[in-house]
Amino acid sequence: MEYLSVWASYTNSNYCKFTAWISQSMVCVSIFLFALIAIDRYMKLCHTASASITPAASRNVTLVLTLVNAALAAPCLVIFDNNSRGVCQVQESMKTSLITAYYSFLFTLFLIMMAIVIFCYVRIAIKVRQSRRVRPIPETSKSEAMTRSEDGGEDYFTNPNVPQQQSTKDGELREVEGRQNNIQLTVVAPRVRFQSPNRGVNVLPQIYPALNTEIHPALATSVEADHEENLDVLNQIQTRRKFLRQQRNLRVTSLLFVITAIFILSWMAPYAAMVKGLYVGFRYPLSLGDLVLVMYGPNIYVINTFSNPLVYAILSPSYRKLVRNVLRKVRVISWRVVQCN
User: Fold this and answer.
1) Where does the chain cross the membrane (predicted)?
2) End-to-end CA distance of the chain
């Protein structure tokens, strides 16, 4: 990619070689990592049943990719050197078909990784568009814990502390949040409804604690909330959590997509200059288009470096919060320094 190297000028030959190697390694690692991130987002949003890449696996893959791409960029330590004018570029003796094949291989890898990124994000966009957006579920209040007894009497379980959500089935109390010590009751009065503790207490004279059970002084009510109604509440809670999880994944995916797009676009000009120099060549005097490509193309990658903080500041609330905390600490430290002086 540094085939032209019109912007780099160094006084030391070793510094030229080292800079070319580091630059080539970082670009190759970056495009591989962006492809890996795109695959992870695709698995997360389009194949929710599949396991996404874990943090431990991400660290291991990043380390392996760094080592592999460092080895892949090792030829830069040999083919680059300062010329008579002090410009870091490919040595004239190295401009052979082998070097052309080497950079053609790197350019092919770049195109393959870019195709993977485009495919994953296009599939994500299609999936998001086709899926029905789940509306936010309003906050639910505490269960009213209403009980309707059946003819002949049935056994239920109850507790003086009504949990956030609760339901019963086959005589067993099921709860969503919290733990409780259940007490078995026998309800023998037919068709009687009870109110929960937060709406007053209607004491039923025909409630008998089951044998061998602990009796609480605060025992107020019995329990069976309508089973289907409580299942609806549980479904709403699960739907709400799923909706929030999808929204969080979409925000992260949008942030990563913008960063990836800026990276690809900012490096397309240097690669275009490389391809033009490898396969077509530049004829002097340079045309206006070739002059712009040669003078500014290799430097457009700087846009990627300076744009990332702005993208994070716009799309990431956690990043903005972190920046505010850092600035607040800087102000505190500055104030203390001024006070000490």
Assistant:
1) 20-39, 60-80, 100-126, 250-273, 293-315
2) 52
Beta strands in the chain, from DSSP E residues, in sequence order: 80-82, 88-90, 147-148, 154-158, 166-169, 172-175, 183-187, 193-194, 207-209
- Distance between CA atoms of 59 and 76, rounded to whole angstroms? 26
pLDDT tens per residue across span 108-126 = 888 898 889 889 888 888 8
The predicted model scores a pTM of 0.55
Phi and psi dihedrals of 150, rounded to 5? -105, 160
Selected from 1.10.1060.10, 1.10.230.10, 1.20.1070.10, 1.10.1040.10, the CATH number assigned to the domain covering 13-134+238-300 reads: 1.20.1070.10
Peptide bond just before 285 cis, omega within 30 deg: yes
Kindly report, residue by residue over 21-57, the tens digit of the pLDDT. 888 888 888 888 888 888 888 887 777 655 667 778 8
Q: Which residues have a Cβ under 8 Å from the Cβ of 88 and sit 6 or more positions away?
A: 2, 5, 8, 9, 10, 16, 19, 20, 80, 81, 82
